[in-house]
Each structure stands twice: as C-alpha cells, then as structure tokens.
Specification:
The protein contains 4 helices and 2 strands, in the order αααβαβ. It has helices at 2-30, 40-50, 57-71, 88-104, and strands spanning 75-76, 127-128. A two-stranded antiparallel sheet has the order 1-2. It is globular. It starts with a helix and ends in a 6-residue tail after the last strand.
C-alpha cells in the first residue's frame, strides 16, 4: 500500500509541476515579459514545445499549431539549442504547453518575443520567414 501512495504522490507532484509551468508561461506571455526575464525552466519548456519532435507526429503537429498561434504563419527559429536528450520533466512540461497553451492565450500573444531589443540572441528569440514567402 505504501508503494502505491508513494507513486501517487510522485504523479501528483509531476502534474503540479506541469501546471506551474503552464500558468507561468501564460502569465509571462500576457504580461509581455522580456525573454531574458523568463525563468529558465519555463523558457526551456517553451523552446522544447516549439520544437517538432521526430518521434511523434501528434507532438510535431501540436508544435506547429503552437508556433502559428503564438507567432503567426512565419516559422520559429530558436537561438537556443534543444538538447538531444532533454530531461523527462522538461519533456512533460513541453507536452503540457503544446497541448494547453493555445487555448489559454490570445492569438499571436508571443509576437512581442520576436522583436529583438538588442543584437544579443539571448534577449528574444528570432523570427524567420518561411522559405518561398515574400
């Protein structure tokens, strides 16, 4: 019985962590918080959420929907490398953002992040045009 209770606590803590990440991202986007002021775990979650994982077509589609919702029809190009093996907790946070963030924030609510304040790539992620668009 104690093992089941321990597993339940672990699952509940993971869900609470995902919820904190989601509500944090929503608050940061709504407040137009500069990218360099985002807490690293929330920033990493969004970076991973915007990346299209090769392992899952569903997750890749969710990433495309999230990018279009936050930034418009242009493609996203993050200046931060996505590690080949992100931690499982980072993957769970990203999956939560992919699935829930579009319904919680306004269309193009991340567009302010695409305007660079300086030439420092850590200030805000760049926005790039899709090939063939003009």
């Amino acid at each position: 019985m104690q093992r089941e209770e321990t597993e339940q606590v672990i699952v509940e803590q993971a869900i609470e962590d995902e919820e904190r990440t989601l509500t944090g991202a929503v608050a940061l986007l709504r407040a137009h918080t500069p990218w360099d002021r985002w807490p690293v775990p929330v920033r990493r979650a969004l970076e991973l959420a915007l990346d299209e994982p090769a392992s899952s077509e569903t997750s890749a589609r969710q990433a495309r929907v999230l990018r279009r919702h936050l930034f418009g029809p242009d493609t996203w190009s993050s200046p931060f490398p996505v590690p080949a093996r992100p931690a499982r907790i980072e993957v769970r946070r990203a999956e939560r953002l992919r699935s829930d963030l579009p319904r919680l924030v306004s269309l193009r609510s991340g567009a302010y992040l695409t305007v660079r304040e300086t030439n420092d790539p850590r200030r805000s992620p760049p926005r790039t045009r899709a090939v063939g668009r003009g």
